[in-house]
Design a protein that fits this description.
Number of strands: 9
CATH class: Mainly Beta
Strand content: over 45%
Structural class: mainly beta
Number of domains: 1
Order of helices and strands: HEEEEEEEEE
CATH architecture: Sandwich
Shape: elongated
Distance between the termini: 37 Å
Radius of gyration: 17 Å
């Protein structure tokens, strides 16, 4: 039996929705904001399997508790409770989906990319993603387990 085009569309829609499923994350010190949702795409299961040579989309929805002229992202790979800086292409939050200045009580969608370079080792670690305001206080901080793989 050949599946109907409608059945194929429904199956594809379900698969796409599964790829954008909100992640379980640990809040690691959001002070000046509150995280509503974290999405890493594609990451259908946890820990997220991050394939070398691939770039992943990050989308964090958060509400700000403060006013801020700007924001800056810092990303780390946490191994044995040591934070190792992880470079991202655009650390400026105002160039990553957030309309600045940031206003108290407003919700924002922070969008960025997480490139996984081919030279990274194949290991399990924790990704820690921070966004700080212009006073260097945490708008948000979240952690998820990942596994870098070939």
């Amino acid at each position: 039996m050949v599946p109907s085009p409608l059945a194929l569309l429904l199956a594809l829609g379900t698969a796409a929705t599964a790829l954008a499923e909100p992640l379980r994350f640990v809040d690691c010190g959001s002070i000046d904001g509150s995280i509503q949702e974290v999405n890493v795409s594609p990451c259908p299961t946890q820990p997220c399997l991050l394939h070398k040579g691939t770039s992943y989309s990050i989308n964090v929805t958060f509400a700000s508790k403060i006013e801020s002229q700007g924001s800056k992202a810092r990303v780390y790979g946490e191994m044995l409770h040591v934070d190792i800086p992880f470079p991202i292409p655009e650390p400026d939050g105002c160039k990553s989906g957030i309309q600045c200045p940031i206003q108290k009580g407003h919700s924002y969608s922070y969008l960025n990319k997480l490139p996984v370079k081919s030279e990274y080792p194949s290991i399990k670690l924790i990704v820690k993603w921070e966004l700080v305001d212009d006073q260097d206080q945490m708008l948000f901080c979240w952690k998820i387990p990942v596994q870098i793989t070939s």
